[in-house]
Amino acid sequence: MRYLPHTDDEIRSMLATIGVASLDDLFAPIPEASRLGRPLALEPALDEASLMRHLGELANKNDAARALSFLGAGAYDHHIPPAVDQLLLRSEFYTAYTPYQAEVAQGTLQAIFEFQTMVCELFGMGVANASMYDGASATAEALLMARRVTKRSRSVVSAGVHPEYIATSQTYLAQMEEAGAQIDLAKLGADGTTDLAELERLVTDQTAAVVVGYPNFLGCVEDLPKIAELCHARGALLVTATSEPYALSVLKAPGAAGADISVGEGQALAVPLQYGGPGVGLFATKDDKNLVRQIPGRLVGETVDTDGARGFVLTLSTREQHIRRERATSNICTNHGLIALAFTIRTAMLGRRGFEEVGRLCLSRAEYLKARIAELDGYSIPYAAPTFNEFVVRREDGKAAPLIAALAAKGILAGVDLGRTFPERDHELLVAVTERHDRASLDRFVEALGSV
What we know:
By secondary structure, the protein is α/β, with parallel strands linked by helices. Helix content is about 35%, strand content about 15%.
């Protein structure tokens, strides 16, 4: 069946209405040089059965889908039950764009309210917004929020924060009046965490915020209480960025460890890996009026209607569409509502006990793999800081890229070559373990490493 959005009669009516004789006349203003001038190079049309067979043949060429994967670096291969997709397919969810008319979007608003509650519990914070685009945009928005709250211009970001989060933050701040002097990078110490002496040197009475990964990009767990003490002594806010939310099943919540703003990526608790996206940005802050009023995006709150029945409303919408531009906290036009809903459904399915069980599985299996690799000749675990499910492996007698290519030929995606981001770390790869890796998979990986 061909998809033709307009009938011949509708096309003739449209052309007559705008006073054009034909479709060729409609496109006449487009210069000849900008027109294709030939039919599109498309394959012949197929009937449905043939098309499904052809798509299956193409899908079977995707070797990566069948590979044993240890990729991570901000996107993680956790189990997402089919029930999540089936609930997302309810028409009242997947057709909703954004609840501009709150009184007719009670279901969507309630789902967002539950999402916010779960994000608050995850981060140990008092208030969360309706979500951001992803972890990177959430990090950048946190820096802008800290500037508004503290009335300060500079920020310090640990070199252990996800490189894409850093790049996005630099892009956000590049056009502001102090361009080029917005972000100072604090180097990492020998154990893989932020160098506290370097941090103490960089944080001044002009620092609005300090951002650290929790865990950081190398998988290492930062000492948040010490960093928080250092920040607060100089009037700066502490922002944590978490790309692996399952880590918070075993780590102390950032809010309980002294963070003022916590952001992160919710993909691991929402949707499987799919060509890099979409994700959902998590954003929460302490229950402090000065902080809450500067939170970007919007908040959904609970109330009662005139009959006393429970209801939900957009409590705070400090966006350019709602208030004067100079008073807006963000120009983000919407939230990733569908992925936020997936996050909410999956988290509700897990419950507190299930969330902790998955986290313990990830931790124990990662520790097992780390210990096995440390025993191999030619490999080492270079950083001593504690980790959750992701850690760095150093190849002592060669670069990481050839190793990754050799294992890919054996159906194993060994990890992320850190040399792609940090040229000085071209002998290191970042390895991630989830609950989907059983003992046989881990042993197979170790055996493959030892044979290269």
